[in-house]
Write a structure and sequence with these properties.
Low-confidence stretches: 1-22, 225-231
Number of strands: 12
Oligomer: single chain
Mean pLDDT: 90
Structural class: alpha/beta
Strand content: 15-25%
Helix content: 25-40%
Shape: globular
Largest sheet: 10 strands, mixed
Length: about 300
């Protein structure tokens, strides 16, 4: 399998009004485990970006040669970088960390092999990173056939304090981009679920705020079986949420915004309550998304605070 090391290059890109800006290269980290059925769509979404200064790091975690897989589908680009985790099923966190340890670009982004970027995601996010250390975006939640299910976090662009973030972005957090010169972190390989939130909590140690793009610029695909869905996931999800809550209560995540840990802990308590009530709610309303179940509980908690 071909391997490479990203090289930071400066260049220029032109936005709608003809105003040129010095570009900053974004390293996109994509772990791949049994990803053949859907990685093509994810990679095409990167190739479709209106912002051209990126490197895509694909880390094979299943022994597959994804360079060859993509070439067979006509997908090749000099900005692709391929790595192997050297193991089978070592985990997305370990695979992501391998790439994060190698990249030398100022900006980092995460894209799971079963998700997609909207075409303007990097352009909008890089513009925001000029003033903010962390950028998040609203989600377009979809099923496996890319059918729309709902949006999460849609609304106006705005600054979010750490205590507010999860009450807006109540689903997954791998839609983030960050400026590695102002904050950086690695994934917790000992945590089964909620690893994206845990990484964000580390970034908040030096990033006092994040900028949230309210337009859904990230397609979050809910697979029938994944780390977030499928048999046994509920138990591991609850265990991970309890672990993070305990760490927050023990002061393991000091943040630039001192109210951040309490706010995220409040979210986790509501989320754990929602987990306990979800089976009954799902029996009453088959097909109910957890996000649709959780959102009104978060709204009630916010109004009661």
């Amino acid at each position: 399998m071909g391997q490479g090391r990203a090289t930071f290059k400066t260049g220029r890109w032109v936005m709608g009004g003809g105003a040129a800006k010095v570009s900053e290269t974004v390293s996109i980290v994509m772990p791949a485990y049994r990803a053949e059925p859907f990685i093509g769509a994810a990679v095409r979404s990167v190739l479709a970006q209106t912002y051209p200064h990126w490197r895509l790091w694909i880390v094979s975690d299943d022994g597959e040669d994804y360079d060859t897989v993509l070439l067979a589908r006509g997908l090749a680009d000099r900005r692709f970088r391929f790595l192997s985790s050297g193991t089978i099923g070592g985990g997305a966190s370990r695979a992501r960390n391998m790439a994060l340890d190698l990249i030398d670009t100022p900006y980092a982004a995460i894209l799971d092999a079963d998700d997609r970027f909207k075409p303007q995601k990097l352009e909008r996010a890089v513009a925001a990173l000029a003033d903010h250390a962390v950028v998040t975006s609203a989600l377009d939640v979809m099923n496996e056939r890319f059918g729309h299910l709902r949006h999460v976090g849609a609304g106006p662009d705005r600054v979010l304090r750490p205590a507010e973030h999860k009450f807006v972005s109540l689903s997954m957090d791998s839609m983030i981009l960050w400026d590695r010169r102002r904050c950086d972190a690695r994934y917790d390989t000992g945590l089964t679920n909620m690893t994206d939130l845990e990484l964000l909590m580390q970034l908040y140690r030096t990033a006092g705020r994040s900028w949230h793009l309210g337009e859904p610029l990230h397609d979050y695909i809910k697979l029938t079986v994944s780390m977030s869905n499928g048999p046994g996931v509920t138990e591991t999800m609850i265990r991970s949420k309890k672990t993070l809550l305990r760490r927050l209560e023990d002061g393991c995540y000091p943040m630039a915004d001192p109210d951040g840990p309490a706010g995220i802990a409040s979210f986790l308590r509501v989320s754990l309550e929602a987990e306990a009530l979800y089976p009954a709610a799902l029996a009453e309303t088959p097909g109910l998304l957890f996000e649709d179940h959780l959102e009104p509980m978060l709204a009630s908690a916010t109004s009661a605070a």
